[in-house]
Automatic annotation (TrEMBL):
One of its GO terms (cellular component) is nucleus. PROSITE patterns: POST_SET, PRE_SET, SAM_MT43_SUVAR39_2, SET, YDG. The keyword Nucleus applies. PANTHER family: HISTONE-LYSINE N-METHYLTRANSFERASE SETMAR, HISTONE-LYSINE N-METHYLTRANSFERASE, H3 LYSINE-9 SPECIFIC SUVH7-RELATED. One of its GO terms (molecular function) is double-stranded DNA binding. Residues 128-271 form the YDG domain. This is Pre-SET domain. Keywords: Centromere, Nucleus. Residues 572-588 form the Post-SET domain. It holds the Pfam family Pre-SET. Residues 1-55 are annotated as: Disordered. Residues 351-412 form the Pre-SET domain.
């Protein structure tokens, strides 16, 4: 896919005492480092011993020859593509650190390495929107917001410009994050009561908040009337999720006695009108999840399109025309692949196919399935670590249980998905849940076909022989002090063409539309059943996806032409209506 970058020398570990990389701000003020008491005259301070070199550490101090692929101008001010790239590269490093069982400081290591080596953007502090960051975007770690410039302060919930940098008279707040550590009032959709920062004295005892730093900046924003970005913290399945809710104005503030018995600042922020929904969508979907059996929407057509085949029901809804109760064309809902023709019969002993009886676990180095995957599990906590030419999951001949960490695609849906009517592209697919990058969404289930069996007018055909837009999703070894030769190939390598038709039989995957700027990608998975190996197609999240966002993947094109020496034209049989900035005009 890309030429491997040259092997680079990196410097040894350094004493990092900056921030936690993602968990959020500390609950109290930063502590002054230990030193001699003020006024002491006896002796001299002994220099600190440098931190011992740790050959197993993944932290990088600097790497002068590293090429981040991000220009100096793009680091100062980004765009949609640069922001997506930075977030994907950060999360790829985080997943890799989990895969190799990094003992601690995973988020610190991932975010610090990105910052040190220039994998970041929007470094210029600014008031107002952030280039490439959209209202409703979700973040799973505090460090992600820092890397893309949404909230630059690495520890505090209030980010601001000083009087020198604001370009106006005095301080000015740029963004606030509701971290859950103060008594913020967050239930209203268009207003927010934000409690000021600090309020801890010596020995972390409560005290009155004072008008300085972030508090002073928010107070100044009341007078200036400047835009302030608001990020709201929510929890989903016991995970923190940060939701960017757009621009607010600080309308008022008061200094009153709080629940602690000490004075605190209470700032009222009001959301500016005519912005896309962010937090409002989150709360509306929360209602749907809490009332799963009753859909309160007028556009509801079917409570479960799978008719009980899936563990989680799949609603069908038309909010474009609530009076239209037409259902999709007739098809049989199936949970997984139906193999009529395409299979790989290896004609080998069944006992040699799966895990061995003496295998301690599927994460053990002696496991034969582990060896097929390069000696490492392809998943961590049900999240795909890296794209590969082919992933091998444990099959029916393996003695491991159904919850084996090497069984994911075969276990079906784990997300609340729904089929909905789009404005221009027929039926589409979206999720009630926020989706983390690398999450398995669904299988593209259908009937395996040979080339001769495929119908020419089949609009529900998946074809691995098409030409797909190339992209890099895996981690960069050099960002983790690993040799560049260890880069995992992302080039799909199948022994034969795979054709799957979901026209007559299929699952929710048949409703996922095409996009030239997709948020989902496909990954071939090999699975063994009764001595025969089959290839399934798993659909995974390319990046973090907010709830109720349409899920799309690249259908590919059947023809590629060269226009001159460098330009490549992708030509498909159907006109593309994805509307993205990357739209190539056609697909399939």
């Amino acid at each position: 896919m890309v030429s491997p970058p040259p092997t680079l020398m990196v410097f040894d570990d350094f004493n990092n005492n900056s921030y936690d990389g993602g968990a959020g701000p500390s609950t109290g003020p930063r502590k002054r480092g230990r030193g001699r008491p003020k006024g002491s005259k006896n002796g001299t301070r002994k220099p600190k011993k440098p931190k011992a070199y740790n050959p197993n550490s993944k932290l990088i101090r600097s790497c002068p020859k590293f090429e981040s692929g991000i220009t100096k101008a793009e680091r100062e001010s980004g765009n949609l593509e640069i922001v997506a790239s930075v977030l994907m590269r950060f999360d790829a490093i985080r997943r890799r650190l989990h895969q190799v069982n990094q003992p601690k400081d995973i988020l610190t290591t991932a975010s610090t390495n990105c910052m040190r080596l220039g994998v970041r953007t929007n470094m210029t502090r600014r008031i107002g929107p952030i280039p490439g960051v959209q209202v409703g975007d979700v973040f799973y770690y505090w460090g992600e917001m820092c890397l893309v410039g949404l909230h630059r302060d690495m520890a505090a919930g209030i980010d601001y410009l000083s009087a020198k940098r604001s370009g106006v008279d005095g301080h000015a707040a740029t963004s606030v994050v509701t971290s859950g550590q103060y008594d913020d009032e967050t239930e209203e959709l268009d207003t927010l009561i934000y409690i000021g920062q600090d309020g801890k004295g010596k020995n972390r005892q409560p005290c009155d908040q004072v008008l300085k730093n972030g508090n002073l900046a928010l107070e100044a924003s009341v007078r200036k009337g400047n835009d302030v970005r608001v990020v709201r913290l929510e929890k989903h399945n016991n995970e923190k999720v940060f939701i960017y809710d757009g621009l607010y104005l600080v309308s008022d503030f008061e200094h009153v006695i709080g629940k602690s018995g000490f004075k605190e600042f209470r700032f009222k922020l009001v959301r500016k009108p005519d912005q896309p929904s962010g937090y409002a969508i989150w709360k509306s979907v929360e209602i749907l999840r809490n009332h799963d059996l009753i859909d309160p929407r007028n556009g509801s057509i079917l409570g479960d399109l799978s008719f009980g085949a899936e563990v989680l029901r799949v609603p069908l809804v038309n909010e474009v025309d609530e009076d239209d109760k037409t259902i999709p064309e007739d098809f049989d809902y199936i949970r997984s692949q139906c193999y009529s023709g395409m299979m790989f019969d290896l004609n080998v002993d069944i006992q040699s196919l799966g895990c061995q009886q003496n295998c301690e676990s599927c994460s053990h180095q002696n496991c034969s399935c582990m060896h097929k995957n390069g000696g490492e599990l392809p998943y961590h906590n049900n999240i795909l670590v890296s794209r590969k030419p082919l992933i091998y999951e444990c099959g029916d001949s393996c003695p491991c249980p159904i919850d084996c960490p090497n069984r994911l695609v075969q276990n079906g849906l784990k997300l609340h998905l729904e089929v909905f009517k789009t404005t221009n592209c027929g039926w589409g697919l979206r999720s009630w849940d926020p989706i983390r990058a690398g999450t398995f969404i669904c299988e593209f289930a259908g009937v395996s076909k040979t080339k001769e069996e495929v119908e020419e007018d089949d609009d529900y055909l998946f074809d691995t022989s098409r030409v797909y837009h190339r992209f890099i999703w895996n981690y960069d070894p050099q960002l983790l002090r690993e040799d560049a030769s260890k880069q995992v190939s992302e080039v799909i390598n199948l022994p034969t063409q795979v054709l799957i038709s979901a026209k007559e039989k299929g699952n929710v995957g048949r409703f996922m539309n095409h996009s030239c700027w997709p948020n989902v990608f496909w990954q071939p998975i090999e699975y063994e059943n009764n001595g025969v190996r089959y290839v399934r197609i798993g659909l995974f999240a390319m990046r973090h996806i907010p709830p109720m966002t349409e899920l799309t993947y690249d259908y590919g094109v059947s023809c590629v032409e060269k226009n001159g020496e460098d330009e490549i034209l992708y030509k498909g049989k159907k006109i593309c209506l994805c509307g993205s900035v990357k739209c190539r005009g056609s697909f399939a």
